């Protein structure tokens, strides 16, 4: 099998946003470690902050004169035009008799990539950066299926999924008028089930067993996750201790020294990823909730969000809290002084906490985050979900009490025990004979 794989060349096409780049880069590293030649395709706008390669994964950057538009629809059109114009030349440039390009692995939302791949004589593999549960919800509630969702206080019941209330569903299900273009795009992923040659999911079998089994009975899906750096899981990929292609420059020394001076399990790590944006009132409530929790906290606040922090809060930080624009995420999450992860529940962040055995306080904002929070609190039982007021804001008392419930109260022990359990199961999935490792090997053998 390795002899065959050594002669294969796989192209990987993420959408140029950090949260989509990270898991696909990690998957690429797994393929490359098995002898496959892997090239990640991106744009000059993104690659200017990147090395020319990440480990054994090569970076092929497409030049362009104009910057990507800020408007989502126009940005997607811009990306499509750039890729469709250049992909053929890239395939021709990178192909040779010894390493022919055979497969294009693409981010599941850019569904036009499967047609481009087939036109070029390549196989196409859709890569889903969300959970299997999300895909199942979108599959069942596809507008083309005319599925009506009751929102009159009823619980939504779908095959293989837990009971879901309105606040547990992805926002595109009930707020589709607010995001018409994005909603259409999200549901378009379902076409991959009919067209793609492979369907990869960044999850692992036992994490979403019921829904994985259900989806696998319909389509030949492959779970290949969790796609986080190997040194935090199976340690089979040497020196793979970070995603490797960061668009931001973390401040490592300051926060690690600060964490080193704190007691084991005493710090709340607060991070809302690279995109989530809180309203000014919510930032204020979060700030004072952290302060009144009586726990130490390390809070990552992007530069664009700093102006929302209350002035009097900043003056009272002292040694209780540390505010940074960015930090080495895995080093912080894995640090022994961190006892809890206060998170927006993006899928990457959720997997990272599970894989590192860190309990969570879940404060979802939109998209898939409410569903991930539902699983964190009710299915995996690795944390608690905050309750918002009718206006959508979570007040400071709710934030402080939720933190104490995870950090200090009796349920906190259960959350920690469950987090450690999932950490072990995640490691087993990517280990040599694990379910995800076997799925990757099976894919390679089919090349």
UniProtKB/TrEMBL annotation:
Single GO MF annotation: quercetin 7-O-glucosyltransferase activity
UniProt domain Glycosyltransferase N-terminal: residue ranges: 9-43
A Pfam family: Glyco_transf_N
Keyword annotations from UniProtKB, A to Z: Transferase
Domain of life the protein comes from: Eukaryota
PANTHER family linked: GLUCOSYL/GLUCURONOSYL TRANSFERASES, UDP-GLYCOSYLTRANSFERASE 74E1-RELATED
Similarity comment text for this entry: Belongs to the UDP-glycosyltransferase family.
Annotated protein name in UniProt: Glycosyltransferase N-terminal domain-containing protein
Species of provenance: Anisodus acutangulus
């Amino acid at each position: 099998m390795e002899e065959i794989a050594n002669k294969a060349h796989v192209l990987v096409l993420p959408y140029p946003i950090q949260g989509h780049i990270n898991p696909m880069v990690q998957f690429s590293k797994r393929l490359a470690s098995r002898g496959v030649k892997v090239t990640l395709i991106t744009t000059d706008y993104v690659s200017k902050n990147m090395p020319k390669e990440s480990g054994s994964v090569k970076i092929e950057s497409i030049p362009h004169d104009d910057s990507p538009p800020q408007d989502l629809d126009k940005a997607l059109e811009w990306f499509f035009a750039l890729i469709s114009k250049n992909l053929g030349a890239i395939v021709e440039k990178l192909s040779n008799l010894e390493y022919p390009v055979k497969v294009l692995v693409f981010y599941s939302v850019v569904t036009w990539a499967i047609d481009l791949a087939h036109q070029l004589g390549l196989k196409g593999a859709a890569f889903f950066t969300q959970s299997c549960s999300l895909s199942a919800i979108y599959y069942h509630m596809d507008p083309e299926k005319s599925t009506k969702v009751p929102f009159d206080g009823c619980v939504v019941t779908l095959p293989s999924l837990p009971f879901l209330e309105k606040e547990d569903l992805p926002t595109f299900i009930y707020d589709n008028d607010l995001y018409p273009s994005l909603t259409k795009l999200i549901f378009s992923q379902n076409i991959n089930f009919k067209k793609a040659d492979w369907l990869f999911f960044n999850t692992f079998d036992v994490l979403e067993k019921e829904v994985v089994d259900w989806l696998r009975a319909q389509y030949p899906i492959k779970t290949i996750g969790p796609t986080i750096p190997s040194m935090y899981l199976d340690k089979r990929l040497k020196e793979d201790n970070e995603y490797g292609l960061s668009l931001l420059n973390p401040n490592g020394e300051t926060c690690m020294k600060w964490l080193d001076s704190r007691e084991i399990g005493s710090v709340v790590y607060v991070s809302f990823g690279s995109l989530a944006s809180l309203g000014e009132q919510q930032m204020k409530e979060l700030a004072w909730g952290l302060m009144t929790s009586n726990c130490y906290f390390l809070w990552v606040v992007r530069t664009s969000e700093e102006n929302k922090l209350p002035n009097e809060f900043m003056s009272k930080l002292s040694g209780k809290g540390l505010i940074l624009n960015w930090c080495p995420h895995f080093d912080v999450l894995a640090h022994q002084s961190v006892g809890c992860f206060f998170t927006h529940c993006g899928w990457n962040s959720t997997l990272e906490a599970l894989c590192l055995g860190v309990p969570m306080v879940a404060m979802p904002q939109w998209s898939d985050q409410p569903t991930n929070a539902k699983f964190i609190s009710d299915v995996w039982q690795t944390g608690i979900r905050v309750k918002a007021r009718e206006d959508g804001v979570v007040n400071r008392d709710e934030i402080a009490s939720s933190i104490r419930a995870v950090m200090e109260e009796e349920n906190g022990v259960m959350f920690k025990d469950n987090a450690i359990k999932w950490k072990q199961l995640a490691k087993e999935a990517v280990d040599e004979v694990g379910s995800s490792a076997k799925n990757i090997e099976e894919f390679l053998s089919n090349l």
